[in-house]
């Protein structure tokens, strides 16, 4: 299977619906068995996700396939070994034609872990383990990668990591609107205590 054939087939799957499944895994296995490389598939899916940036639903499906490619998925649908997490740092700067962002990757992840501890009621070691087993420690290569993370609150991501998909249907809050003053005071204290920066700042290039 060639790279162009893989791209065509996966775009068809994206158009059809859910992509985090064994059907997509089999396509990637066929590609792998024909000599396809993980890094090539990763770059291909990153570009597909960028191309679908105008449609959030389709882009999310592309990111689901990217999770399978990079190994950040359920072991039952894994194709390649998980790619190693990057060394987390602050001050990552990414741009497109019109917009830029400074993403403080380390501070973002630390804040998510502290939310997991304080509001998810788990210990710091378990919070670290859950975070290290998530999308958030992957290398961010484009501004779209950052947009995917920052379109939700840190609080939401923390609760998702602790409680799993659809956690809000169990009565668990997905935001801090009902205790905003308490939360903002707590967040300010945590950032000062651990010298954490604001997670991100977008800017216009022109």
Describe this structure in words.
With 206 residues, the protein is mainly α. The protein is 55% helix and 7% strand. It has a 3-stranded antiparallel beta sheet, covered by helices on one side. Helix 1 (3-16) packs antiparallel against helix 2. The longest helix is centred in the middle third of the chain and has 16 residues, at 105-120. It is globular and about 55 Å long.
**Class computed from helices, strands and strand pairing:** mainly alpha
Task: Using the CA coordinates, give the radius of gyration.
Answer: 18 Å
Q: Strand content of the residues, in percent?
A: 5-15%
Order of helices and strands: HHHHEEHHHHHE
Shape: globular
| Largest sheet features | 3 strands, antiparallel
- Can you give the helix content as a percent range? 40-55%
Can you give the mean pLDDT? 91
Q: Give the N-terminus to C-terminus distance in angstroms.
A: 43 Å
Low-confidence stretches: none
Q: How many helices in DSSP terms?
A: 9
**What oligomeric state do these chains adopt?**
single chain
Total beta-strand segments: 3
Relevant terms:
3-stranded antiparallel sheet, 7% strand, 206 residues, mainly alpha
Topology of helices and strands:
Elements: H1 3-16, H2 22-33, H3 38-51, H4 56-70, E1 92-95, E2 99-103, H5 105-120, H6 124-132, H7 143-150, H8 154-163, H9 180-194, E3 200-204
Question: TL;DR of this structure?
Answer:
This protein has helices spanning 3-16, 22-33, 38-51, 56-70, 105-120, 124-132, 143-150, 154-163, 180-194, and strands at 92-95, 99-103, 200-204. With 206 residues, it is mainly alpha-helical.
């Amino acid at each position: 299977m060639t790279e162009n054939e893989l791209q065509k087939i996966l775009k068809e799957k994206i158009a059809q619906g859910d992509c985090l499944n064994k059907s997509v895994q089999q396509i990637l296995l066929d590609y792998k068995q024909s000599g396809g490389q993980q890094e090539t598939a990763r770059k291909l899916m990153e570009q597909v996700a960028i191309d679908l940036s105008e449609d959030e639903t389709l882009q999310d499906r592309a990111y689901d396939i990217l999770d399978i490619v990079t190994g950040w998925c359920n072991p039952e649908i894994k194709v390649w070994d998980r790619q190693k997490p990057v060394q987390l740092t602050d001050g990552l700067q990414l741009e497109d034609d019109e917009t830029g962002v400074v993403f403080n990757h380390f501070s973002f992840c630390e804040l998510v872990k502290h939310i997991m501890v304080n509001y998810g009621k788990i210990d710091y070691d378990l919070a670290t383990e859950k975070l290290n087993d998530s999308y958030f420690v992957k290398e961010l290569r484009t501004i779209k990668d950052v947009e995917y993370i920052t379109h939700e609150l840190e609080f939401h991501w923390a609760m998702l990591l602790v409680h799993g998909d659809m956690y809000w249907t169990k009565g668990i809050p997905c935001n801090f609107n009902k205790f905003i003053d308490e939360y903002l005071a707590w967040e300010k204290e945590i950032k000062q205590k651990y010298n954490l920066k604001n997670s991100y700042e977008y800017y216009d290039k022109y």
